[in-house]
Amino acid sequence: MEYYQTENGFAYGKPPVACIVTRKPGNDKLTIDHTYVSTQLRGQGIARMLVMLVVEQAQKEGRLIVPLCSYAARVLAENPELSALVTTL
Q1: What is the C-alpha to C-alpha distance for residues 28 and 59, in angstroms, rounded to an integer?
Q2: Cβ atoms within 10 A of the Cβ of 60, count?
Q3: C-alpha separations of 22 from 5, 68, 89 in Å
Q4: Peptide bond into 25 cis (omega under 30)
Q5: Which residue from 29, 36, 26, 28 is spatially nearest to 69, judged by alpha carbons?
Q6: Beta-carbon neighbour count of residue 81 at 10 Å?
Q7: Per-residue pLDDT tens for 6-55?
Q8: Which DSSP symbol is given to 48?
Q9: Sign of CA dihedral 63, 47, 5, 79
Q10: Across the strands, what pairs with 30?
């Protein structure tokens, strides 16, 4: 299985068995609204990888991340080097 970009975020597997949903509420922000991993695949680092793909996208596009998803907020808070990318709406 592989990770790939979707219209509103990123996914893993075809058909998707994990996904992260994002929005662009303006020119400078990228929200993470929801992260989902099927129960059979949880605990394997898939959701963390999806968050990091959003981080890469935000960095490439020069956007700040608004982590509305509690899991994404926790992952970003655990990485002090990413704190400069995190903002609020």
Answers
A1: 11
A2: 8
A3: 11, 10, 13
A4: no
A5: 36
A6: 6
A7: 999 999 999 999 999 999 998 999 999 999 999 999 999 999 999 999 99
A8: H
A9: positive
A10: 65
CB 17 within 8 A of CB 27: no
Spatial neighbors of 28 by CB under 8 A, at least 6 apart, are: 62, 63, 64
Q: Which tokens belong to 41?
A: 């695949």
Give the burial string for 30-53 (b: 16+ CB within 10 Å, else e). Answer: bbbebbbbeeeeeeeebbbbbbbb
pTM of the model: 0.95
Cα–Cα distance measured from residue 72 to residue 65, given in angstroms and rounded to the nearest whole number: 10
Helix (H, G, I), strand (E, B) or coil at 66: strand
